[in-house]
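Can't paste images in this forum, so I'm doing it all in text. The chain is below; anyone willing to post the predicted structure tokens underneath?
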Amino acid sequence: MSTHANDPKHVALILDGNRRWAKRRGLPAMKGHWHGLYKGLWPVVLSAPEQGITHLTAWGFSTENWNRSPSELEYLFKLFERGIRNRVNELNHQNIRINAIGQIDRFPKKLQDVLREAMERTGGNDGMTFTLALSYGGRSELVAAAKKLAGKKPHEITEESFGKALYDPDLPDVDLIVRTSGEQRLSGFMPWQGTYAELIFSKKQWPDFRPSDLAAAIREFRGRQRRFGA
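Text version of the structure:
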């Protein structure tokens, strides 16, 4: 396991490029999503604890993704459901806790049940926490937090109280955000938790991203001098 003093503890991933990966190969978009999950995500998740990571968050489905075709959405929901069900034993064996943030109640009940069961089964694990951001949007999270605080008096609304109103108040600030597919923007991902995160943009499309690419991103992170407004 990595023990470097400058290792990022919370790494967040923007999984971009599944559909473009498939299109480049003349394949349907669904194949890109399949490869993104089984060839990209799961190997990276299982390798992350060896990199010294204690929290890994993956943006698997944004609030904007609801605009995709009904057939693609149905496929994605079944892919998430099967993927979590098939891997929960392995993640549990590796002492990895499964977590989820976002508008989870918008998903089909079957997927919600699978997520809840996985979270309950792995809830006692004290190794790395793997958080799936599903139906997640940064602005939506901030609006939801503001609604929770709407009845508070002005002096009661502080950075601390606002942080506790987020989807998961126990999720620590993000140290490193990695986005794949060459896009150099955050698209509203974790605006509160990622305020001081270092950013790395990989040209690889997500299905081609491997544990070695995560290790390379961490090596680049180690070489940076972080400044928190100083």
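The first strand starts at residue 10 and ends at 14. The chain has a mean pLDDT of 95.
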